[in-house]
Structures are given as structure tokens and as C-alpha cells.
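During the reporting period the student researcher (J.K.) took over the structure-prediction task from the postdoctoral fellow and processed the backlog of single-chain submissions. One of the processed entries is reproduced below for the supervisory committee.
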Amino acid sequence: MLLDITIGKDSLSLQIDDPFHIDLDDFVSRIEDFASPKGINVSALDVRNIIPLMIKGIAGCEHGCPADAKGFVRKGFKGFSLEYIEGGILSAVAEIEKGKDQKSLTLKMFPDF
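J.K. obtained the following C-alpha cells:
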């Protein structure tokens, strides 16, 4: 699986080798290091808890999508707009700043197939 994080025009891609045994501390730390210089507090967005839910939403899609992606999108997640994209892709967007200098943090999870 691949997790792509985008803030403005900058992006960071993180490979998830084993979605059932992810080192969440490492992933959150790397995302924080990416977001912090841009003035974004990842812990305020609850990235730590949305990543495992996104993984659960698409893990196992090889045997018929979505694993639980559409259910996850229907339930929603506080602070994020969720979207299921055909092919088993999940997108979560959090608006960071409003107005003229609008910024958003986008997490896109891609299955491995």
C-alpha cells in the first residue's frame, strides 16, 4: 500500500509494506516532520487514528473492493472530508486555513495491486 500526503504543491509518499503491522509512530513522526515547517499541527487533525481506519478500509481489496472503504466514507471522520475513488483508493482531506490562503492536508491511500 502507498500513503501519499499532500500539502499545497508539496507531497510525501510513504510505502506501507505490511498494512496489518504498521509502525504508526514512525509514520506519524514522518508526517509531522513534513507538515510542521508548513505550520500544520498533525496531532490536532488526528492523523494517528485515521491512518489505521484508511488501511482497514482498503486492505484486502484484491479480493473485491471495497473492503470497507465505502462504509468508512459513509461514517466519516471528524475534521476530514472522505472520498472513495474507484480502484480502491481512499482520500481524506482536512482544510487547514480558510480564506485567501486556503491550505489543505490530503491523505490518499492506494492499495497494492
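The committee noted the following: The mean pLDDT is 86.
J.K. will present the remaining backlog at the next meeting.
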